[in-house]
Design a protein that fits this description.
By secondary structure, the chain is mostly beta strands. It contains three helices and 27 strands. It has a single domain, classed as Methylamine Dehydrogenase, Chain H (7 Propeller). The strands form seven sheets. The chain has a four-stranded antiparallel beta sheet with strand order 1-2-3-4, with no helix packed on it. It has a four-stranded antiparallel beta sheet with strand order 5-6-7-8.
């Protein structure tokens, strides 16, 4: 199995372990993180944050130790939410102003129905591993063979490993239908808003179990992007995913779907490629940076914004157009970014939240706009 994770997930994991070992309470019994609520802290907006999303006009950011924060003033002030777990959360998405999901370490899936103010746990790694085994046994019953037996053996390994594998991305098309993906090729599907989940491993062409970092959809077409240049497409609404080669084996940490069959992937060491035919053919997108890309944001005006871990920003008017540097280099790393309701760009990283500019419609952002 593969084991490479994006730097954001890896650093958070190491930092959490070090903090735990250095704690005076290390020798005392510790409630498992899957049932221990996130601790309230006045420094929540300055903590390590991994992802950010819009819930209507509200902003919702997630990060280490189960921290979730919300803002109703475009990122100027933040409130911490009630969260039932204290694992690191890696991704968040809302389908409207109320309904959203967050995923993270230990196979956690959380749901909010009040715009991110409170959350309930829908899935964790213990249950997820059991679902993988159940699905493998079902596959053997319907098609007994060597491949099915191999699938069951791999599934039983997930079960014996315990809840140690993180989910890294979540994507819902509506309040009912969604997917979560993660390390070692993990992928689960729900058709009832997360009340129940099904392992989707056997429907994805990913024999090496490569980490999956993103899943996106464009109508009935779905896309997966992951490590070592992994890319897969489903043309049947997610019933099956076929692997499609890309020009490089660099890991793709971010993906964005564009109008008319456009797809953009970006990731390790400045690698970025675009396709105008749903991934059948690719061409490189040239940047004057070798830093790994961590975020792709489709702006309301149609432009595509790239952000990397060095805090640099680039913009592309549309596919097949040159990429323009915005000339802004923040001293803070960027794990994710979102366009706020007022047009500001709000980013999250290892030093928490940063608001960049007040008007991202302009072709450049003034120097010193990062707060």
């Amino acid at each position: 199995m593969s084991s490479f994770l994006p730097r954001s997930a890896l650093v958070v994991t190491l930092a959490s372990v070090w903090t735990f070992l250095a704690s005076p309470a290390f020798s005392e019994p510790v409630m498992p993180v899957l049932v221990r609520p996130a601790l309230a802290t006045p420094q929540a907006s300055h903590s390590v944050l991994i992802d950010i999303a819009r819930a209507g006009t509200r902003l919702v950011a997630v990060g280490e130790r189960g921290i979730v924060i919300t803002s109703d003033d475009n990122g100027q002030s933040w409130c911490q939410s009630s969260v039932p777990v204290s694992v690191t959360l890696t991704a968040v998405q809302f389908v409207d102003s109320k309904n959203g999901w967050a995923v993270g370490h230990s196979g956690v899936v959380l749901r909010s129905q009040d715009g991110g103010a409170s959350w309930t746990k829908q899935l964790d790694g213990v249950r997820a591993a059991s679902l993988i085994v159940e699905d493998a046994k079902h596959a053997i019953a319907s098609n007994p063979g060597s491949s099915a037996q191999a699938t069951l053996k791999a599934a039983q390994q997930f079960l014996s490993d315990g809840p140690d594998k993180p989910f890294l991305y979540v994507h819902f098309d509506d309040v009912l239908h969604g997917y979560v993906v993660g390390a070692y090729g993990l992928i689960f599907h729900t058709a009832d808003g997360g009340e129940s989940w099904q392992s989707w491993l056997r429907f994805v062409d990913n024999p090496k179990g490569l980490n999956l970092y993103s899943i996106q959809s464009d109508g009935n077409t779905l896309y997966l992007a992951g490590e070592q240049g992994y890319f897969a497409r489903s043309g049947d609404g997610g019933k099956s995913f076929k692997h499609i080669p890309t020009p490089r084996d660099a890991s793709y940490f971010a993906m964005q779907v564009m109008p008319g069959g456009g797809v953009v992937v970006a990731g390790l060491r400045g690698s970025a490629f675009e396709s105008t035919d749903r991934g059948d053919a690719w061409q490189p997108t040239t940047f004057e940076s070798s830093e790994s890309f961590s975020a792709l944001v489709r702006m309301r005006d149609g432009r595509l914004l790239f952000a990397n871990e060095a805090g640099e920003f680039f913009v592309q008017p549309s596919l097949n157009h040159p990429v323009e540097s915005l000339g802004v280099a923040s001293s803070h790393s960027v794990n994710a970014a979102v366009e706020a309701a007022n047009g500001s760009l709000v980013t999250v990283g290892f030093r928490g939240v940063r608001v960049v500019g007040r008007n991202t419609i302009a072709s450049t952002i003034p120097q010193g706009a990062v707060k």
